[in-house]
Amino acid sequence: MCQGRFGRVYTAVNNKTGDLMAMKEIHLQPNDHRTIRSVAEELKTLEGINHRHLVKYFGVEIHREEMFIFMEFCGEGTLESLSASVDCGLPEHLIRRYTKQLLSAITCLHDHHIIHRDIKGANIFLTDECRCLKLGDFGCSVKIVAHTTMQGEVKGLVGTPAFMAPEVYTSSSGEGQGRAADIWSLACCVVEMATGKRPFPDLEDTYQIMFRVGMGGSPAVPDKLSAEGGHFLELCFVHDPKLRASAQQLDDHPFVKVELDGDEYFSSLPQSLMAGFTRQDYGVT
Fold first, then answer.
1. Radius of gyration of the chain (CA)
2. Which CATH architecture has domain 79-277?
3. Is the pLDDT at 113 greater than 80, yes or no?
4. Is 79 in contact with 193 (CB distance < 8 Å)?
5. 2-72 has which fold?
6. Phi/psi zone of residue 121: left (φ > 0), alpha (ψ -120 to 50 degrees), beta?
7. How far apart are CA 80 and CA 271, in angstroms?
8. What is the spatial distance between Cα 253 and Cα 249, in angstroms, rounded to a whole number?
9. What is the residue extent of each domain of the chain?
10. Distance between CA 268 and CA 189 in Å, rounded?
């Protein structure tokens, strides 16, 4: 189906049910215990979680030279691709719907003490003729010990620079990061949907983005968004993670008070585009 940094993804069939699955193939080096342990931790983190807007993991097979990870099949491309394929980004009623779905997925993870740490459009997959999104690629996710994130509990420069919260850049200094980092990334996805571009499109490399954020900068709020959308982003783009809104608080915001059923949300997308995205391959980064 496609190839990413960490392996190829194929379409597979469950012989018992006949359902399609995505199968990620990862080549192993001799005595590659680190890769096996990393995948095992990823699967253990998601063990027992079943949510409509999270990509399901079915299991793993380990052989001498390769490892196969079986996941839910999402064959309609990514939110990144959809946003970039529409002039000037997606219409707001679609952004609201997708944001509500993504927020629901993040809330589920946070309720299970899991931080995703790499939320971006390229890791969000589309299904049901683009009506439903699913957050996937949990390779950077981590399970925190305490119900409330402890200072310095999670460290490390992990994620995608344009979508990373300020505290992620400074986590090496001992401040650490927690659930609030995912909220900043959520807002970056809203910007991506509204503009069709990643945050800070004028900056070319990681160090420029790091400097901009470190100096107190945040992604610009798109002019096309309503006052409700702008206020939603303002609650997310707070540099102090202790003052940033939580997933539970954002769930009550008017920006995401939308119905999740009904085809009228998709009437503004060209049928040719919709048809194209129902044939997209499952992505992997």
1. 19
2. Orthogonal Bundle (1.10)
3. yes
4. yes
5. Phosphorylase Kinase; domain 1 (3.30.200)
6. alpha
7. 18
8. 7
9. 2-72, 79-277
10. 20
- Residue 261 bears catalytic tag: no
Selecting among 32, 87, 111, 118, the annotated active-site residue is 118
Residue from 77, 65, 76, 67 nearest 24 by CA: 67
Considering the entire predicted model, what is its pTM? 0.83
CB contact set of 147 (below 8 Å; sequence gap of 6+): 113
Tokens of residue 235, six digits: 């609650």
Task: Identify the residue with better confidence: 251 or 284.
Answer: 251
Identify the H or E element spanning 192: helix 179-195
Q: What are phi and psi of 68, to 5 degrees?
A: -120, 125
Percent of the chain with pLDDT over 70: 81
Kindly provide the residue ranges of all beta strands, DSSP E only, lying in 136-182, ordered along the sequence: 142-143
Quick count: other Cβ atoms within 10 Å of Cβ 29? 9
Exposure string over 63-87, b if 16+ CB within 10 A, otherwise e: eeeebbbbbbbbbbbbbbbbbbebe
Q: What does the buried/exposed string (b/e) look like for 187-218 if buried means 16 or more CB atoms within 10 Å of the residue's CB? A: bbbbbbbbbbbbbbeebeeeeebbebbeeeeb
